[in-house]
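Hi R.,

Here's the chain you asked about this morning:
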Amino acid sequence: MASRVVILGGGTGGTLLANRLRRAYGRREAAIAVVDRDDRHIYQPGQVPVAFGISRPKDIVRSRRRQLRAGVDFHETEIEHVDVSANQVHLAGGAVLDYDVLVVATGARLAPEATPGLTGPGWMDSVHTFYDLEGAAALSAALERFDEGRLVAGVIDMPIKCPVAPLEFCLLADWYFTQRHLRDRIEITFLSPLPNLFAAPIADSSVEQLFADKRVGQETGFHISEVDGANGRIADADGREVRFDLAVVVPSFRGAAYVGRSPGLGNDRDFVEVDTKTLQSPAHSNVFAIGDAADLPTSKTGSVAHFEGEIVAHNIRRFLAGQPPDAYYDGHGTGFIETGFHKAMLLDSNYTTQPLPGHFPTAVGLPLLKDSRLSHLAKVEFQWFYWHFLLPGRDIPGLGSAMPTRGKARVADIDAGPGAPAPPA
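And the predicted structure, written out as C-alpha cells:
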C-alpha cells in the first residue's frame, strides 16, 4: 500500500516539498495530496512592488494547481481541523483525509483584529497594509493620491513574514516620492518594536546608514497599542504617540486558524513547534512543518522554506523507511532589501551567524550588506527563478541548505561600533 503524505498549504513550502517528494517516490510508493482553500499562488515578494505601482497584481498570481507536478492531488477546500491522535485531516463539507505523514505548510495569517482600532475608521483609507494582495493594490492607489504630509510605517510585533519588507517599504517610499518630485513635502517615519532597526548589530549599522542617507526617521522600541485612523494617531504601550496622514501597518501574525482548532498540533499563536534541525514535531513523529507555519528562530521567508524543503523531504523519506531523522538544518536564509534607485542589498545568515559583509555564495558572488545595482538585477530576476526553479523543488547547483561561509568576513574582523551588542555566538 502506498504511503499517504498530506501537505496542508499550497504556498511556497508546501508546493516545493510536494514536488520534491513526487520526484522521489513513484505513485505506487506514495500518495501525495496538497490542501489549500483557493487556487491563487501569490509571489509574495511582489506585493511591495505592487504597492508602488512597479508590478500589477496579475503579474504575481498563478494557479496553485498548475505549480504541482503530475501525480500530486490538489484539494481546493478549507481545513476544519486535524485529529493528530487518529492521523486524520477533516475538511470542509465532511471529507476526511487519512495520512501516514502530515506536513503543516499553511504559512502565517494576518491578524489585524488583534490591535485595537486597526480595522476601525480609516482602515483601507488612511490606514493600509501591503501584506496581502488586496491591501497592496489599495495602498498603491493611496500612495498615488498622497502628495504631502507624514507617512508612517509601523510593525505591531514580531515575528512577521519577511522581516526586511517594512524596511524595504520605507526605502522605496523615499525613491517613489523623489521620482514624483514630492520628497521634500513628505516626512517618512518607521516604527519598530525592536530596540534597533535590525536585530543583528552588523546589519543594523548598514540599514541605519541607509535610513540616515535617505532621511527616513525612526522610533524604535515602539510597541503599538492602538491605531486611531479617524484622528491620524498611533499610540504605544508607554504613552508615546505618533501622528500620521497616511499609515502603513504590518499587523500581528498567527498561524492558520485550523491549527488552533486542532488539539496538540500548535502553540498559543497557532504555529507548529518542530525541532530546529530536523523540522519534525517533538510531540508527533509523523508531523512536520515547513515555512512560515513552523515556530523556528529564523526568518519567515521563501528562501528559508526552500532550504527547509531539502531537509523535510529527506527526513520524511527516512521516517517512512523506519529510520531516525537527520539533524542538519542550520536556519539558513537569504533576503534582498530593495533600497531604491535600482539598487538592492543582500543578506545571508543562519541560526548562529548574523548577516555579514562579503560576497554570496562565494568570494566572487553578489555583494553582501552593500546596496548595489547587481543585487537589484538579481532580485528582479529572482521572480523567474521562483516560478521555474524554486517552486519545482529543484536543487541549486553548488548551493545546498547549509549557509556558505566562503566569501564572508569574520565577526572578529568587524568593528560594529561603540556600544554595539555582542554578535551571536
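The radius of gyration is 22 Å.

Let me know if you need anything else.
M.
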